[in-house]
Amino acid sequence: MKQFIFYFIFAAGFIFNLSAQPKREIRGVWITINYALDWPNHPLRSRVDIERQKEDLDRMLDKLKDAGINMIFIQTRLRGEMIYPSEIEPTNEYFDQKSSSVKYDPLAYAIDACRQRGMECHAWMVVYPVGRSRTTVKKKGRKTTRSLSIPSRYKDMAKPFKGTLYLDPGNPKTIDYLVRLAKEVVSEYDIDGIHFDYIRYPDNSDKFPDEDTYKRYSGGENKADWRRGNINRFVYEVYDMVKSLKPWVQVSSSVVGMYDKIPDVDRRHWTALHSVYQDPVDWIQKGKHDFIVPMMYYADNLFFPFVDDWTARCNGRFVVPGLGLYQMDANEFGWEPNVLLEQIQYSRDHRTQGNIFFRARYLLENKKGICDEISSRFYSTPAILPALTWLSRSLPEAPKQIYARKNSNALLLEWDKVTAAKVSGETLFYNVYRSETFPVDTNDPGNLIAARLVNNSCEIPVDNGVESGYYYVVTSYDRYHNESTASNPVYFVTGMFDK
Is the overall model pTM greater than 0.90, yes or no? Predict the structure, then answer.
């Protein structure tokens, strides 16, 4: 594994609005692989393309890291295709390694690349849609539509509906198949989380052709309740499977932004519970999800009251509103950045655990200056992630001592490694704090200068023309986001004068 030295550049705007910055917060982004919307820019055709894909991802992650992002959701299962070499489903065309001499695992690379930058990597998996059910062909100058055959791996499980092939949630074979697929990802990769999308019945689901499975498996139960129960059973099974293998791997889902109707909101709207038979409140109340991400791609009274509704139902688990950066596009609602900035502030003020942005390219391209605004107003200091206290409350051992020495135009900090307990995934990370005063307050987010470091060292650039002195401490930090007490401090003065 490559080792990277972390450098910290303290920009002129570093102290902007410091008092409002939380120490613990999820700051996430979805990286969309489907149709190569975010990544990659180059399909695999040769070894050169491998390096291009890696370089493209590295540049993206560097920019996202600089913007303050600490959690990456990388699309791992598209609609029936994977980005890694799976034993169960085919590889997406952008990663299909036709040459046997080409060896490259995009998911493994992404996990490592995120880790070296202090970011978590969550495998984002589309659940029920698995491809097109028909295609348009041109013959003798005329376009006609023809049905596509159902792949044998989906035999007896898939149903065509409105041009798309869906796995039938009511078929017990579907649950077995999806759990097996999730197990492959969790078993084979050192991911920090697994994240489910399209974990619902399709739009206009009243017409979904599942009458045969309803008659066979419902036992006469009300159809709406039966449908919700089908998705719930998958959620229960996959959550228990994940925790039995790696209890630190977080389970989350992106869900419809409005759970149920709210009396004070008159406008008719789409809801998770009734429109697509999705019941995420059941999942969090039964402890079968670690967090949910409502896709809250709306404004005004279709956003603010529903944030409050979700947090009132969260049962101590995390609610992380997903925000639609794409709505700034002229082909969508053409939002100005202030719409999204107000939503971030509201999310922070109303007991959510952060935000996740859809999608990466809008941040990376700084559309309408949105990345600059988010970074300077809300993410000007690093943040560690909220502790998963229902999974573990055990604090890791603290590093004993931190050491400092001058190295040219940088200050090098080093400390002894801490051995992780097996319950924490046998991996520990480190957070570094500094303060002009003693003791160093590790609860002050303004003192946190580096989060989730892989190595037991970091290098901080210094200006030799300015003399300054700080106390430094380091903490250890486990896969459950539990943080140790601080190490013994070290005080170091840097500048142009002899020490």
Answer: yes
